[in-house]
Specification:
- It comes from Brachybacterium ginsengisoli.
- The protein is 32% helix and 24% strand.
- The chain is of the alpha/beta class and 352 residues long.
- Strands 4-3-2-5-1-6-7-8 form an eight-stranded mixed β-sheet, sandwiched between helices. The protein has a five-stranded antiparallel β-sheet with strand order 9-13-10-11-12, sandwiched between helices.
- The longest helix has 17 residues.
């Protein structure tokens, strides 16, 4: 069973539909939001037409609940049918595949997860990944309270998936941007109908490797072609961000048409590793992990397309760090100081 994600329903459905034509013994299990009731529609499709089309009422409207409450029993039921050799799962548009796969993994039995697949438009990639549209503005969110940007949702799909189908002009600026964001081990296909079903359903999902690509503690600057002006900065330091100067510089550091990921720390909470995740002018930060015996580091990988932005971003990064003299003074001066980042990082004791 392979999970297929996208932020564009037409591309997702075209890819799944094309794959179904390759074999009569493969089904698609697709979930869509019913506009009238806000419930989910479960649609089971074969190459020759729709088999099931039912509304699903959930106790709680979230992706993990949808997978646990409905997809798990449905997959088990479909997998028991002798004539079914494979299933393509299309979760709700904009779903995070790491959440989908993470919820499904413990329930593998008659079926198992193949490598995840994401489909995106090269022609729309610049706007989708770096623009400031939210899912709500595009009508792509399926639960109230989903405040993610389109870029955040699409980046999560691209970073997690083992295979990326990029539809459109392969030499475009959008394709160049995706090359900067994808890891070398991720397979890139530039034709909607070039990926055979046998390859989509072959192998097994390496969930831990996919999660590592998403993990801000292990970000890497993959780089790529620069013909269209795409650039990637690899910014790192042993020094932490100064809490107040970070607030002063955060717009210069994270604003604009950027995709930025990484981790940082601040001197008034040296036991915390903080996540930085930004797309389309939105930046999400939080104290996510406990540091080990060694002090954390500060490391951001930032990709953009505007020629004037690298100098701005480098300068904001440098200004946000402790100065050499502040760093030489050690961490003792920070004991008991006001935690000005608490509204964004959470309480100092909240890291799990």
């Amino acid at each position: 069973m392979a999970v297929v994600t996208a932020v564009e329903p037409v591309l997702r459905d075209a890819l799944i539909g094309g794959l179904l034509l390759d074999a009569a013994d493969v089904l698609a299990l697709r979930y869509e939001v019913d506009e009238d009731s806000a419930a989910l529609r479960r649609i089971v499709v074969a190459a020759d037409g729709v088999i099931e089309d039912e509304l699903v009422e959930l106790d709680h409207p979230c992706v993990s609940c949808a997978m646990r409450e409905d997809a798990v029993p449905t997959l088990a039921r479909l997998a028991e049918a002798r004539q079914v050799a494979g299933i393509l799962l299309g979760p709700p548009i904009s779903a995070d595949p790491s959440v989908v796969a993470g919820t499904l993994r413990p329930h593998q039995d008659a079926w198992h997860l193949a490598p995840a697949l994401a489909v995106a438009s090269a022609d729309d990639a610049l706007h989708d990944l770096l623009g400031d549209d939210t899912l709500a503005e595009r009508g792509l969110q399926w639960a109230s309270g989903d405040e993610r940007s389109v870029g955040e949702a699409l980046a999560a799909q691209l970073e997690y998936s083992d295979r990326i189908v990029l539809v459109g002009e392969p030499d475009s600026a959008g394709a160049e941007l995706v090359e900067h964001l994808r890891a070398p081990e991720q397979e890139l296909v530039t034709d909607l109908y070039a990926l055979p079903l046998s390859r989509v359903l072959s192998g097994r999902l390496d969930h831990l490797l996919a999660l590592r690509r998403r993990d801000a503690r292990y970000v890497e600057p993959y780089g790529g072609p620069t013909e269209h002006g795409t650039w990637t900065l690899d910014l790192s330091s042993d020094r932490p961000f100064h809490p107040r100067r970070l607030l002063e510089n955060i717009e210069q550091l994270g604003g604009g048409r950027l995709r930025a990921r990484g981790h940082f720390w601040v001197p008034d909470r040296p036991d915390s590793i903080c996540q930085w995740d930004g797309a389309g002018g939105q930046v999400s930060v939080g104290a996510v992990w406990r540091a080990g015996r060694d002090l954390p580091t500060t490391h951001l990988v930032i990709t953009g397309v505007e020629a004037e932005d690298p100098e701005r971003v480098r300068g904001a990064f440098a200004r946000s760090l402790l100065t050499e003299s502040e760093w030489e003074a050690g961490l003792m001066p920070w004991l008991g100081t006001e935690d000005v980042l608490a509204p964004w990082l959470g309480a100092r004791t909240s890291v799990g």
